[in-house]
Specification:
Layout lengths: L4 H13 L5 H21 L6 E6 L5 E6 L4 H4 L4 H18 L5 E5 L2 H23 L3 E5 L2 H11 L5 E6 L6 E6 L2
Parallel strand pairs: 2-3
Antiparallel strand pairs: 1-2, 4-6, 5-6
């Protein structure tokens, strides 16, 4: 995909100034990202997968690849998907000249995991309030820990913090003293 460097510079300037990107600029970001994802999928013989795009809650671009045999790209506990996410984000930022928030999902794995993490956080919050003691959530990656922190951020009766050393960090949900 050939990119217009003048257009990219203008888009980078808009983004860095905090100006909302135009629909055409967002389409360009999506096209570059989809091109990168398709290249990776082709390495696994998956050339006919659908890639749905939509905007996330925090303005990020979410791309969800579906169809075909994509489980290998998710991997155990989503670890392969984390690597794909890192690779795609790096490729896209290199092509664009700036880092735009992109989330790569496969078969809705991250969406389902997000709901599961929220459910775990709410359950721990309930137990922490009832038992008046801190509750440890399972070990999670940084993205999942952030979801847990955000899920409970508006509860004035609780505080959350992360403990441990990567890759064994977890969230602690504690009642406010």
């Amino acid at each position: 995909m050939e990119l217009d460097t003048e257009k990219l510079q203008e888009m980078k300037q808009h983004y860095e100034e905090g100006t909302e990107l135009t629909d055409d600029e967002l389409d360009l970001v999506a096209d570059v990202t989809i091109d990168c994802i398709r290249s990776i999928l082709a390495c696994f013989g998956e050339e006919h997968s659908a890639i749905d795009e939509y905007e996330g809650d925090e303005g990020e671009l979410i791309l969800d690849a579906t169809g075909g045999n994509l489980n290998i790209l998710i991997g155990r506990h989503g670890r392969n998907l984390e690597a794909v996410q890192t690779l795609v984000a790096s490729l896209v930022s290199r092509k664009l000249g700036f880092r735009y928030p992109i989330v790569v999902d496969i078969e809705g794995y991250k969406s389902a995991r997000k709901e599961k993490v929220r459910s775990i956080a709410y359950g721990a919050a309930s137990r922490a309030k009832q038992q008046h003691r801190p509750m440890n959530l399972p070990v999670m990656n940084a993205y999942e820990r952030r979801i847990a922190h955000l899920a409970l951020a508006d509860d004035p009766e609780l505080t959350t913090y992360s403990e441990g050393v990567e890759p064994n960090r977890h969230v602690v949900v504690a009642p406010v003293a």
